[in-house]
């Protein structure tokens, strides 16, 4: 099987390799619902030592730079309460935490969640956090640009491996909210 983007030696439908995914991601793929079938989510094996963006695109394909998205966990605070959310933005941008995120979460202050919080709350490895398999009660803030991509490369929940799926499939994930200008 060949991936629609990039140059990967090992490409499989995600439902065929649940054992390679962390449990929250495997459960989300197993319970996948919506108009796009789960087998349109592809798992590609990647070397975690090649995770740096420049090395990654050199190793797996220059077309991946514009087709990759980063998922980060953010914390919004208001009146002593903290709420968590995930943001997915093009890899060539940065999350507008103090503007778009803060307003969307109706928070007085917003910041990137601490490493231990992000890992503990998602059950995923740092550097591999993905929008697939996040806690269902979290908002998933999507930059409009990633939902418009024919295919987008995201983390797999682990540092090894990535997932490729149609950008429009992101719209069927729990808590999905599309925002213009989330990544800038």
UniProtKB/TrEMBL annotation:
Signal peptide: none annotated. It holds the Pfam family tRNA_edit. It comes from the Bacteria. Residues 63-172 form the YbaK/aminoacyl-tRNA synthetase-associated domain. InterPro entries: YbaK/aa-tRNA-synt-asso_dom_sf, YbaK/aa-tRNA-synth-assoc-dom. This is YbaK/EbsC family protein. It comes from Streptomyces millisiae.
